[in-house]
Amino acid sequence: MRLISSFCVLVLILGCAFAVVEELNGEDLLKIVNGEAEDNWFVEFYGPNCGFCKGMEPIWEDLAKVTEEEGYDWRVGKFNVHLAEHQGKLEFRSVFPGPLPGLHLFLTDKPKQFYEHPNPRLVLNADQLVQFAVMDYEKVHPVWRKDEYFYLEESPITNIDGKDFDKTIADGNRYFVMFYGLKCGACKQFMPTWEKFAIAAKERNSPWTVARMEGFTNMQIVDRYTARPWPSLVFIENDHYYRMDTEIVRATSDIEELFKWVESGEYLEVGEEYTGVDEGLEYYRKLQAAKDKAKKKKKAEEL
Q1: Domain 154-291: CATH class, spelled out
Q2: Is the backbone peptide bond immediately before 229 cis, with ω within 30 degrees of 0?
Q3: 250: which residues sit within 8 A by CB, 6+ positions away?
Q4: Which ranges of the chain have pLDDT less than 70?
Q5: Which of these, 24, 16, 192, lies nearest to 104 by C-alpha position?
Q6: Which of 101, 133, 154, 261 has its C-alpha lying 20 to 30 A from 41's C-alpha?
């Protein structure tokens, strides 16, 4: 009887020590993505054959134990991105990381955003993760849980959906557009600079619109300007485009360099591979003109 009791105690101890990391399924993750979860979640996105993920496993278990012992207000989970049933699920792929593992903090008071640990492969212990969850997450740019949330964001930057790109720039105004990817690390680093530039451009009444387009919303537009690797900056005026070299973009942190590139006319001096006639915009205008002509003809016939 004593042996059985001791065994039960051992099972309970082991359960407390190793069963606190919760394995999430697709339904669990979807609730989190939709902002329907009642608790904060700190989730590791992993693959079973990922070496870095295997190295993270004991650290993640330590985090779960510390969380339980200290009573922190988040739950610790993990999600296998390589399971066949999780592949192609567009409902939650927007929160999948680039390289694995991905360590994401989902807070209930930010139901449309999450915070992605910037250097998960450099994490050495659970204390670093606690520090991120308590304080350091505020230092990173939040990420939208769903792509469509991005276009609802109040921002000094004009958001252009890929399907409306030509319709937007066909107004004849000048546009300075940043093409980027939601999972692009260099884009995340550059975005605060682009936001500062957009604010300053409005304050100075600059004669152009500072905009951005998420590349995957229309890859044809990206290819039209050869706007990659990302982030890629393209200045559009008078049915011509001028693209800044991506290496220069990634090295730019001073918004005055961006103003200088446009205002001093440096954009006009880019190489042939960076500029050209915007034939896609020309086609769009002619297509719209043809449609308008057809509508007028049909209306006249109906009279």
Answers
A1: alpha beta
A2: yes
A3: 186, 189, 190, 231
A4: 1-19, 90, 151
A5: 24
A6: 154
Residue-level pLDDT at 149: 82
Are residues 210 and 194 in contact, defined by beta-carbon separation less than 8 angstroms?
A: yes
Contacts of 85 (CB under 8 A, 6+ apart): 26
Domain residue ranges of the chain, discontinuous segments joined by +: 2-148, 154-291
Of the CA atoms within 13 Å of residue 298, those in its CB half-sphere come to: 6
Domain 2-148 matches domain 154-291 at the CATH topology level: yes
Contact 45, 97 (CB under 8 A): yes
Q: Are 218 and 165 in contact (CB under 8 A)?
A: yes
Q: What is the reported pTM? A: 0.65
Alpha-carbon distance of 111 to 33, in angstroms, equals 8
Residue 182's pLDDT is 79
- Sheet of 143-144: strand order equals 22-23, 75-80, 41-46, 102-106, 113-116, 143-144
Among residues 251, 230, 249, 245, the alpha carbon closest in space to that of 275 is found at 245
Which residue(s) pair with 75 in the sheet? 41
Cα separation, 42 vs 299, whole angstroms? 60
The full length of the chain comes to 303
Strands 22-23 and 75-80: parallel
Calpha distance 182→78 (Å, rounded): 22
Q: What CA dihedral angle connects 252, 268, 234 and 152, to 10 degrees?
A: 90
Please report where in the chains the tokens 């918004």 appear, as a residue.
Answer: 255
Number of helices (H) and strands (E), helices first, in the chain?
A: 10, 12
Task: Tell me which CATH homologous superfamily contains domain 2-148.
Answer: Glutaredoxin (3.40.30.10)
Residue 75 dihedral angles phi and psi, to the nearest 5°: -105, 145
Q: Which amino acid is at 103?
A: L
- Amino acid 181 reads G
Q: Which of 241, 122, 147, 251 is nearest to 193 (CA)?
A: 251
Confidence (pLDDT) at 223 = 97
Task: Give the integer Cα–Cα distance in Å for 140 and 160.
Answer: 24
